[in-house]
Amino acid sequence: MSEQSLIIRKTEQDDLKHVLAMIQELIEYQNAEPTSLTLDDLIRDAGFTGSHPLFFSFFAEMNGQPVGYTIAFYSYSTWEGKSLILEDIYVKPTARKHGVGRKLMQATTEYAIQQGCSRLDLHVLQSNEMARKFYGGLGAKNLTETEGWLYYNFGKREMENILKN
Q: N-acetyltransferase domain: which residues (predicted)?
């Protein structure tokens, strides 16, 4: 695959059907529960229906075919201010080891810097060695190891339980 055929750009509405398919591929790769998200959800949440966008996304094409995406959203750090959380980065297996992931990370990072973000955060499954090596190779710090930070989550059921007690 030639690097000249690789295009990284902001995701457009018509790309979201491909993004949803790749989200499904990522879920299968991670042996995770199926998503309840629909194409209409992604279109709305990306701000294409006039609503405030909840995320932004970059899209990778190689030889005119969709091969990857990122999804990220803003957060706020009381230590450092505006920050960005990388929710997903996915590259199709056939396009891996061709610089697609690095180019997607560069586009996302450049956007974060342009938007005045102080940092880019992400989480990764402990078992995903390939991703851990990728992020480490780009200079990411594993805050669980270096600072003892742990990642917690309240799912919908847990949030409802908080309201009951």
A: 6-164
The answer as to whether 103 is a domain residue is yes
pLDDT of 27-43, one tens digit each? 998 888 889 999 999 99
Q: Among 76, 111, 135, 151, which one carries the catalytic annotation?
A: 135
User: What strand order describes the sheet that includes 65-77?
Assistant: 6-10, 56-62, 65-77, 81-91, 120-122
This prediction has a pTM of 0.91
75 contacts 115 by C-beta, under 8 angstroms: no
Residues paired with 69 in a beta bridge: 59, 90
Give yes or no: 74 in active site: no
19: CATH: 3.40.630.30
